[in-house]
């Protein structure tokens, strides 16, 4: 029985238009929950299956899965090229075991011992057996085992169905058949056009231009929007969306009163106040940090390698949003801030810090080849930049022409040349886990004493003496080893080897530490970032993306499908081209930059983007639900000086944003996904808002931003031979969650449990899951228990509050509204039952009993759906 159905979820007609490919029929697999009788399969389907094996069908379907293809291109193909192709490709001098792994068909076919890859079946995939080292007779690569993270990627790939777009001709392909001119006709690659705003009578539903576009689409679908949200619900939504914190009870009451007099004026006043709040940058800066894959450690198998200066980029992003820095300038600074003009040293430092965007990604620090390390580093930079700023999966063209979008492989290497001509400074010291150490960039400002204390002349001298003695000791040991070899004696004492390693480590630590001080002992301000290399050169075209198969060089440049004649002019041999790249990306002529950012802002405020695939505006992404509105907002964004605050203000002042989330069965039957916005989407609080709100309501939130990061201190501990301990830091920190240390693979529990973005990749939209661990965290974690107790004490300490007022105030704090009569009745029953139970215990303390009752009541509010969700 075939557990498949011939359902296709891609627009092949559009794909053919873009790529010039004739795609007639493709079968995609769908596992069925029940077994269907054979008679349910249409005759053409049965005929098709008689021509294909299950494995072949699985593989064919996976080719067209854009998520799977991207995973293969970013995680699997580079590892195959680096570790397998030397012995298992068409270019191998002698193919080992009859196994080829450089095409899809060869991988499925396998070698002398059987199939290397069986899609969906880890047990039968000999590739997994080999790289896992579970069989002594089958271990690949034979001289070393792959990193655990790489093995896990291969496992995930097999479980995904082994998506693999490689074709036999991939190995020899250098020329491209992509029709760039035809590709420019795709909607995302055409410049936004100003469309006429739909017109309606003055007394009709729309209030703003946004409403007119939305209402026009609703009317076309014969739908009407639901009622407006009540003032309390709207205020809570505004507070969380703009600053990520709940309103205080007094603010709720004042807003409700103001709305009764003039609601539009009341809403506008609150919006302006929130946009001017310093908490705005902390909220919206965090959104960008998701996209920028912000973290303070390397990740992968060298996770303990910290980035002690990453926090500067974090603060740069927060400050940029608070200052409403024009988005085009914001983009340019992150690509080429070091090459931009600046009026003073403070501004110059800020621009340099901005280039940390290119430096904070995870790196393969254990790579044996410097050439491979640089190629992977550049690929990670191109991948992140493409998704973050252009909504385009450029890195899918590293090993071959992009399978879906009009991006030839040569375009990838034209951009790679720009980044290969740049030096990435990420500030890690050499160690067993780090073969590719890097320095930092010195900023033209002085370090604050909050981060490092100045060294006295005596302290400086002591460290320099220690360094001198360590170097002398190493020379002595090396001399002894040399004389031993010359005399033909046996190998050196293992004790000497250990001492040599220890001294090398000590020297590295001391040298790194001393570089953070000037001769007078004052701290030097350092930052992660990029700078142009001394040698500027074009990148070589790598067949299949393999560093060992370099062909002709490709002139540095940009994506042809987005570039006009001006942008395609040759770049100077004197500079990398990053500034020119930045100016091209942030140009109003670029059809994607404004659209992508507008869509991100809309998604954060409305629950879904106009283009729901927020990181992918290509052929495998989703089409915009309101293309005219998207272009209207993009052009308005540009014309208003690329102001993010202005864009947010326009959206939240629309009637569309201010709708209630009430359910309407008739509308749901027509538009179940609410793509037309007939109501507001209910949204769960993100991890940071949840934690920050609990701290704010308990009275324990410290809104003063901390200077630096605990990772800086932990990094110094490691350099001094100590150990790093960040696990307990979260419980001690009263600051907003954006300032918590973010170590890859070790994210604080209060964030990771509630779907914090994976800091190892660019994430435009977080997943939202509902799992038991979330409820258990709210019920049992020390953090929630302590904050519930603090909230209870805060209510008790409040002057002139009786029991009923305490309950009402608690509701205002947690839900942003007063309790209903039914809620008040149930609350009173709970207190009565709790206190009666306590009376049966010996040695009672009435005050303590009431505090316990109130704290458990507060905890129940924190754990409720009304708190966790925005209506």
From TrEMBL:
PANTHER family: CYCLOINULO-OLIGOSACCHARIDE FRUCTANOTRANSFERASE-RELATED (PTHR35889), F-BOX DOMAIN-CONTAINING PROTEIN (PTHR35889:SF3). Signal peptide: none annotated. It comes from the Bacteria. This is PSD1 and planctomycete cytochrome C domain-containing protein. Pfam families: PSCyt1, PSCyt2, PSD1. Residues 210-423 form the DUF1549 domain. Residues 84-143 form the Cytochrome C Planctomycete-type domain. InterPro entries: Cyt_c_Planctomycete-type, DUF1549, DUF1553. Residues 577-828 form the DUF1553 domain.
């Amino acid at each position: 029985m075939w557990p498949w159905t011939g359902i296709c979820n891609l627009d092949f007609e559009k794909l053919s238009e873009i790529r010039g490919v004739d795609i007639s029929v493709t079968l995609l697999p769908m596992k069925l929950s029940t077994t269907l009788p054979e008679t349910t399969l249409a005759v053409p389907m049965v005929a098709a299956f008689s021509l294909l094996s299950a494995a072949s069908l699985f593989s064919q379907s996976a080719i067209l899965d854009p998520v799977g293809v991207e995973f293969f291109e970013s995680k699997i193909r580079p590892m195959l090229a680096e570790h397998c192709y030397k012995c298992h490709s068409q270019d191998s001098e002698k193919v080992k075991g009859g196994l080829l792994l450089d095409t899809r068909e060869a991988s499925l076919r396998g070698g002398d011992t059987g199939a290397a890859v069986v899609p969906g079946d880890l047990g039968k995939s000999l590739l997994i057996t080999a790289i896992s080292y579970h069989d002594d007779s089958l271990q690949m690569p034979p001289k070393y085992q792959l990193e655990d993270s790489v093995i896990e990627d291969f496992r995930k790939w097999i479980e995904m169905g082994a998506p693999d777009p490689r074709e036999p001709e991939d190995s020899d392909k250098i020329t491209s058949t992509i029709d760039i001119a035809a590709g420019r006709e795709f909607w995302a690659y055409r410049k936004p056009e100003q469309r006429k705003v739909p017109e309606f009578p003055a007394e009709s539903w729309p209030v703003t231009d946004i409403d007119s576009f939305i209402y026009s689409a609703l009317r076309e679908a014969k739908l009407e929007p639901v009622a407006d949200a009540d003032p309390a619900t709207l205020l809570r939504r505004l507070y969380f969306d703009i600053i990520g914190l709940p309103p205080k009870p007094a603010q709720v009451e004042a807003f409700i009163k103001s709305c009764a007099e003039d609601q539009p004026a009341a809403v506008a006043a609150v919006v302006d106040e929130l946009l001017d709040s310093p908490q705005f940058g902390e909220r919206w800066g965090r959104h960008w940090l998701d996209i920028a894959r912000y973290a303070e450690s390397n990740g992968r198998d060298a996770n303990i390698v910290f980035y002690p200066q990453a926090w500067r980029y974090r603060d740069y992003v927060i400050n940029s949003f608070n200052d409403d820095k024009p988005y085009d300038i914001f983009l340019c600074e992150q690509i080429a801030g070091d090459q931009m003009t600046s009026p003073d040293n403070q501004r110059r430092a800020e621009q340099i810090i901005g280039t940390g965007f290119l430096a904070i990604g995870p790196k393969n620090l254990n790579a044996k080849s410097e050439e491979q390390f640089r190629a992977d580093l550049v690929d990670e930079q191109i991948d992140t930049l493409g998704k973050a700023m252009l909504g385009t999966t450029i890195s899918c063209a590293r090993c071959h022409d992009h399978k879906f979008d009009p991006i030839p492989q040569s375009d990838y290497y034209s951009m790679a040349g720009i980044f290969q001509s740049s030096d990435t400074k990420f500030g890690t010291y050499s160690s067993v886990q780090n073969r590719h150490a890097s320095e930092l960039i010195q900023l033209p400002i002085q370090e604050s004493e909050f981060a490092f204390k100045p060294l006295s002349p005596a302290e400086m001298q002591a460290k320099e003496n220690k360094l001198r003695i360590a170097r002398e000791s190493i020379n002595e040991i090396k001399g002894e080893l040399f004389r031993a070899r010359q005399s033909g004696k046996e190998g050196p004492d293992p004790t000497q080897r250990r001492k040599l390693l220890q001294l090398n480590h000590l020297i590295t630590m001391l040298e790194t530490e001393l570089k953070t001080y000037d001769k007078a002992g004052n701290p030097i301000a350092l930052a992660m970032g990029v700078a142009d290399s001394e040698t500027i050169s074009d990148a070589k075209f790598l067949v299949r993306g393999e560093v060992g198969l370099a062909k002709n060089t490709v002139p540095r440049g940009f994506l042809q499908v987005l570039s006009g004649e001006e942008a395609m002019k040759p770049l100077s041999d004197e500079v990398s081209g990053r500034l020119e790249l930045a100016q091209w990306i942030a140009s109003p002529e670029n059809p994607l930059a404004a659209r992508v950012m507008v869509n991100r802002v809309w998604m954060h405020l409305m629950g879904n983007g106009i283009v729901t695939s927020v990181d992918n505006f290509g052929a495998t992404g989703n089409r915009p639900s309101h293309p005219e509105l998207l272009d209207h907002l993009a052009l308005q964004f540009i014309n208003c000086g690329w102001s993010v605050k202005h864009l947010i203000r326009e959206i939240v002042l629309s009637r569309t944003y201010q709708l209630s989330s009430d359910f309407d069965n008739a509308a749901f039957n027509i538009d179940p996904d609410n793509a037309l916005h007939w109501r507001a989407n209910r949204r769960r609080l993100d991890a940071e808002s949840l934690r920050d709100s609990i701290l704010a309501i308990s009275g324990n939130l410290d809104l003063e931003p901390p200077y630096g990061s605990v990772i800086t201190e932990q990094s110094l501990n490691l350099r001094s031979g100590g150990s790093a301990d960040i696990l307990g830091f979260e419980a001690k920190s009263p600051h907003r969650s954006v300032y918590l240390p973010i170590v890859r693979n070790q994210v604080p529990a209060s964030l990771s449990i509630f779907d914090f973005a994976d800091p190892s990749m660019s994430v435009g939209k977080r997943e939202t899951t509902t799992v038991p661990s979330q409820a258990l965290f709210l019920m049992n974690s020390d953090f929630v228990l302590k904050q519930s107790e603090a909230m209870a004490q805060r209510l008790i300490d409040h002057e002139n509050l009786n029991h009923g007022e305490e309950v009402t105030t608690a509701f205002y704090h947690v839900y942003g509204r007063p309790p209903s009569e039914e809620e008040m009745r149930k609350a009173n029953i709970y207190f009565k039952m709790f206190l009666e139970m306590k009376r049966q215990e010996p040695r009672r303390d009435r005050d303590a009993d009431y505090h316990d009752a109130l704290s458990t009541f507060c905890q129940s509010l924190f754990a409720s759906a009304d708190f966790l969700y925005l209506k």
